Amino acid sequence: MNFRLIFLLVLSSLGCSTIALAHPLGDREFNQLEQLLIDYDFVIRYELPPSTNRRGYRPYGLLDTRSKTIWINPVVFDLGNAKPTLIHEAVHASQTCAGNGKIQLLDLAIEPPQITRPYFTYYHGQRREIEAQAYTIQAQPDSLAIVTELLNKYCQ
Ligand SMILES: [Zn+2]
After folding, report:
1. 91: domain CATH number?
2. 19 Cα to the center of ligand 1, angstroms
3. pTM over 0.90
4. In what order do the strands lie in the sheet with 69-72?
5. From ligand 1's centre to the CA of 18, what distance in Å?
6. What is the number of domains present in the chain?
7. Which pLDDT score is estimated for 56?
């Protein structure tokens, strides 16, 4: 039994079902992707990411390529965007595997949808391309299938 299940059982025995919803327990697809990342030796921490972005905010997600640690900001569970956040970081995980620990662009045939452009155009150089790939995949209707394929292709 994992610690989350114990946590939820404790909460449900206390009758705190609304608190349980705010706990980092995603839906089935979220849990599936989380497990795949763990299988490929990534560590996932449900804590405030240890750095701020260019605008001075804690990002929704962060990946440290050296320690293969992914931070998921717990606020995403309240905002309802936990899954796209994990998918975004999983793309960066694939990019990390592709570059053997150094983040690298993937060989992708998908163009960034117009809606994603504001999210990465303020980055420059290679970082912009890296972010464009992550936002492009998270915006696809079959994003989970795509990122699963990428992880299996590059991290195995
Ligand atoms: Zn990113």
Report:
1. 3.30.2010
2. 29
3. no
4. 43-45, 69-72, 61-64
5. 30
6. 1
7. 87
